[in-house]
Specification:
Layout: E1 29-31, E2 41-51, E3 58-68, E4 72-74, H1 76-84, H2 93-108, E5 112-122, E6 125-133
Antiparallel strand pairs: 1-4, 2-3, 3-5, 5-6
Length: about 140
Amino acid sequence: MSSGSADDFSLLGHESRLPASPEEAKLETFANKSPGRAYTIDLDCPEFSSLCPVTGQPDSAHIHISYVPAEWCVETKSLKYYLASFRNLPSFNEEIVNRILDDLVEAIKPARMEVVGQFSPRGGISLTASASYPDGE
């Protein structure tokens, strides 16, 4: 985990290539400066893309992440690179939303988090999937 100075981050302030997969991506963190306050951080990625695991066609989505940090926050450039790493990943929409939640919870251990993916219509049907931590909230 990073302490928050520019030298602590491998992506922020440095040129980097996009990771080829979520496994290769690194979610960097920094200490929450207000851990005693329950405040919300909202992050939007309106241009998310991945691949349909059946057809290989691109899927696009608007991903919204909302969380109440505990001790750690996610650094946004590393999040951008992490989300971009899905662009060549064949995966069902529901799996993607749950994977993003699981990876972020593992990285920052928030008090609460919700990930919502609003996927563009395919065959005339749009799909929105949401997952939350702790489960069921």
